[in-house]
Each structure stands twice: as C-alpha cells, then as structure tokens.
C-alpha cells in the first residue's frame, strides 16, 4: 500500500523541522535590546569597514541605498528560545559591501550606534549568509528592531544580528563582543545549541 498521499513530495517541510533544538515558534516579533534605542539621523549615518591594516571604507546613507539590493527570506533564532520563520527583509549583501575590501583577516568585530558589539568569523558574513537590511516585511525597519539598518546573520543566534549597525572591523584575532564577554558562546550556532561558553 502506498502510504504517501499524492503530492506528498511537494509539501513544504514541516515547520518543526525548521526549529533548532530547545527553540519554540513565535508569530510576534519580540524586541530585545540591551539599552535604549539610539536615534540615528540619516544625514549623519555612515557605515564603515576597516581592514587589518587600518584602511577604511565608508558608505553614506545614499551610497548604501544605491548598492544592489536583495530580499532575504529567512528563519531567525534568538538565544532566549524564540524562533520566527519566514521573515522577509530587504538590504545589501555583505558580499557586495566587502567586494572591493582588501583583507586577509579571519574575524569581524561589529559595532553599533549606541555601543553594542558582537563578533564572528569573517567567512560567516560571506557567500550569501549575511546582509545589512533596512526593511522588514516590506516596511522601513522600525527603530526598535534596528532601523535605519541592522546586520542580519540568520544562521547564527540573533544576538549576532547587530541592530543600528555602524561599523565592521576586520581583524586577525577574535574579539568577543557584548554578550560573548558576558558568557555567551563565541560562535552561536543554533543547530548545535551553542548558547553559552562551553556548549
Ligand atoms: N545594537 C544592538 N543589537 C542587538 C541587540 C542589542 O541589544 N543591541 N540585541 C541582540 C539580540 S539578543 C537579539 S535577540 C536581537 C533582537 O532583535 P529584535 O529586537 O529586532 O527582535 O538583536 C540583537 N542585536
Ligand atoms: Mo537574543
């Protein structure tokens, strides 16, 4: 007997298969900020990348917005155990931003307006895995959620996705950020449940 109903293979993957261990699904979009929401004036907004030799690359808001845009459609996973599926964003791939940046560095240190920091290996920003996004669900990104622009690195726990992103420093060494210094995992892969140091 054929236990599969017609069309079975065409069915989407069950949502629970997309849930990393220890996570639950949420339909809302919780706000998690370690401090107040900074006000960032677009006329003064600047995003910079500094390589390991100190060379700086900078984009004003109009320069950033004129780069080729993509629309990532991704699942996000917060270390506080909520996951949200099928989120839709718009922004610029880090592949585009880093295209002409000369570097041999292995690590990236991210800093936000307001002072938040986080770290990750440079390769986790490349090959279509990370974006700087300015829109969520077809609307300008709310300030609470990181507007005017935030980092989006959905394959790692969401604390790596720095809101109000300001700069990326490319380094030869790993530099733990705000949560990483407070005992959270240096890498933070939700599928390996790397929540805390030692996981
Ligand atoms: N600048 C900044 N970025 C941040 C944070 C923060 O406190 N400040 N919190 C992180 C954490 S722990 C999570 S889960 C997500 C939350 O993003 P959201 O508030 O849009 O849900 O942002 C991350 N990026
Ligand atoms: Mo988080």
In short:
With 199 residues, the protein is mainly β. The protein contains 3 helices and 11 strands.
CATH superfamily: Oxidoreductase, molybdopterin-binding domain
- Percent helix range: under 10%
At the fold tier of CATH, the topology name is: Sulfite Oxidase, Chain A, domain 2
Terminal-residue CA separation: 45 Å
Rg (C-alpha, Å): 18 Å
CATH architecture designation = Alpha-Beta Complex
Structure summary, number of beta strands: 11
Annotation field: number of helices: 3
CATH class: Alpha Beta
Coarse structural class: mainly beta
Percent of sequence in beta strands: 25-35%
Number of domains: 1
- Characterize the largest beta sheet: strand count, sense, and whether it forms a barrel: 6 strands, mixed
pLDDT < 50 runs, ≥5 residues: 1-7
H/E series: EEEHEEHEEEEEEH
Give the averaged pLDDT, no decimals: 95
Structure commentary:
With 199 residues, the protein is mostly beta strands. It has a single domain, classed as Sulfite Oxidase, Chain A, domain 2 (Alpha-Beta Complex), CATH 3.90.420. Helices cover 7% and strands 29% of the residues. It contains 3 helices and 11 strands. It has helices at residues 61-65, 94-98, 178-181; strands spanning 24-25, 46-50, 56-60, 73-77, 82-93, 107-112, 117-121, 131-136, 139-140, 150-152, 165-171. The strands form 2 sheets. Strands 1, 4, 5, 8, 9 and 10 form a 6-stranded mixed sheet that branches. The protein has a 5-stranded mixed sheet with strand order 3-2-11-6-7. Bound molecules: the ligand Nc1nc2c(c(=O)[nH]1)N[C@H]1C(S)=C(S)[C@@H](COP(=O)(O)O)O[C@H]1N2 and molybdenum atom. Molybdenum atom is lined by residues 32, 78-80, 158-159.
